[in-house]
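Handoff note, outgoing to incoming analyst
You'll be picking up this chain. Sequence as last confirmed:
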Amino acid sequence: MHDPEILLVGCGNMGGAMLRGWIGQGRADRIRVVTPTVARVPGGVRAFAAATPDVGVADILVLAVKPQKLGAVTPGLACVVGDGTLILSVLAAVDEATLRRHFPAARAIVRSVPNLPSAIGRGMTTLAGEGVGEADRQLVTRLFEPLGQVEWMADEAALDASTPVSGCGPAFLFRFADAVTRAAEAQGLDPVQARRLFAQTMIGAGEMLARSDETPAEMAQAVASPGGVTQAGLAVLDRDDALVRLVGQTLDAAARRNAEMADAARA
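Most recent structure output, in case you need it:
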């Protein structure tokens, strides 16, 4: 499928980010969008308020609506799904079995978990699929590359495990940055300046982590001199494994909620 026809259902934050990326790839004439807010769709892209037979059968149907709306939109999409259609889902916690039940005629199904920085092309998207061959994997990878990095997971269980890490991760990092900024303000630093300092620190540290073969623990220790300033701070974070336990509880809570949402979607 060299240049497939893409039908995007939903054009909110993530759907809109994907659409802008595809337009940047020069795919505007191969995209159709189904959204109630037709007026917000960029010019040059065919937009429809609802799926009708006139929209035509999609090569790739991208589901970017809110997960709780899946049951409501599915009946109207029957006319655009054929036995050659690949379903590409951006719906949080909606598993492959549920998607297959809603779209039994589809050729293949791919689930994706993009994250918020995808909106500026610096995101992380994890993927897993049912009945997906190498050609489909390459195609889906190209569709997500405008959003940032792409990682195929071994299976759906691994995809779900990735959700608290990269899907929820930006929120956890923002919360940590908020704590650092507040503490810096208490130390006498201007809060706007503290935010700017720590934002660049996160960017630089993240890029170093991505490039390095060292573990994060080894990299943290490399910053700290024995008896120095950094080591004094690390000693607080490391005391009784408090940070490890807190982050573990955080990811566990997110994973439990993901499982609860999956159960609700199956009902």
